[in-house]
Amino acid sequence: MAPFVLHLCGPGWTEAAPSDGPRCWLKGQTYLDGAPIGVDDLAGHLSAVPPSPQSLTASLNRLNGFYAWVTQADHQLRTGVDHVRSRPLFYGQAGGRFFLADEAEWVRQQVGDQEMDPIAREEFQLAGYVTGADTLFPHVKQLQAGECLTATADESGLIRVETQRYYRFLHTEPESYDETALGAELDRVAVASIQRLIDYAGGRQILVPLSGGYDSRLIVTLLKRLSYDNILTFTYGVPGNQESAYSKRVAEALGLRWHFVEYSEALWREAWQTSERWAYQKWAAGWTSIAHVQDWLAVKLMKEQRVLEPDCLFVPGHSGDFVAGSHIPTNAFERSSFTLDDATDAVFSKHYGLAPLKFFDTSRQTWAERIRDRLERDGITAAWEYADVFEKWDWQERQAKFICNSVRVYEFFGYDWWMPLWDLEFVDFWEGVPLVLRKEREWYKSFVSGQFSMQSADEESARLTNAADVAGIAKFLHQAKFVEKLKKITLLRNFVRHLIGHGSKRSPLGWEGWFSDQAFKDYQLKNFSINGMVAAAFLENVKMN
Fold first, then answer.
1. C-alpha to C-alpha distance for 162 and 352, rounded to whole angstroms
2. Do residues 320 and 214 lie in contact, with contact meaning Cβ atoms separated by under 8 Å?
């Protein structure tokens, strides 16, 4: 009986079978030392790695791109995912065999799990994802972002599994810096990341979900600067929403085609009741995170209406705002010293709020201990270390498992994708930018605005800010931290959330159609966020199906 069983069922896998080495499978596109390589070259690169963790780490850090890989010999299997887990892999053990797949449900069936882990289930509801290598089912595991795995079968049939993190998103605070030189380097790495996108696209139609923010704007601006012509921008939502208005002005200023997909509660309600929606949601979740659904309807409608070229490439703006510093807690710029408890509290407050804790059995202390264990850190002192610990959590948990996992939408409908703002060279640059230049990503926004202004044919539009920027009383309430104070009073909390753009009445995306009127009302009364509602409904659907 073979010790290793593989189930690589998704499209896009290629295989090399060298006569003198392990078999190798690759999904996605890899670059070795900046040059694109295929599965044969990757197989040769991996087979030449000396058998030590340090050598493997050094070899994998020479790779860029969005990919997953597997090598298999008679008694050893190795596998890994890229720095943002963009191509997820799942594994488990049962009956003396090791199972590896790109589909979590298949692994669950092989290991025989029937009941969800209760802690993982509550974490999924509170955070929207399950942390670490865990999933909702106790014997179904996942490779984490920047992680590789080695499974070795000995003569007795025992399989030993070892994992190692070859990459982490870690910030290094420079002792000194030259802002002018950093600006020139930012321009170079940004252009290089878009050039890799262009090379990968190879003339295909590039679809950019163009929001009113800075990230997608940077992508289309640099595509314009580098003279790529086959671009279609699009946005979606209920008619008259602010994001769409900004998106249209950006596209027009750059002379790009723009397409609007109209949403309504009725359209969502009709689509939400279909087996197709549930099939997507269950598959994309991978028993790990809530599936990204907000643009599922847009892609579905554009495909049905033949707006898209069959071989088009979707290019979302994930996650320029994150690497540029937008998720760094504001108090990192207000104090000079911190403790690991400060970081743990910050992670819990930011990431475990999709539903009120009072509805669950697990205490805040239990979550604090779980968070501290996942942080893998003995202690911190300086503000930049505090920011680094917080961002490391955000990268490996929310960004990798929820934000970047949104590309499953495109795969579900048979389309390819690329995330240039998670290009490793672009990300590596930001890891060395001083904390002060990443404050509220002002330096990044200035760069994007400057690039956009140079490429814009519309002087007024060239001065556009961000559709998400709040103003007036809403901005005052947010900055004065009144929101936190008013959370204790449900009605006032909902009122303030409405003022700052997360209102509980009418959504610019029409997502009320995801729920029955009664279910939506019940979730509101319990003070669940929209993602908390999605998580709760998903878990309930799993129970029913």
1. 29
2. yes
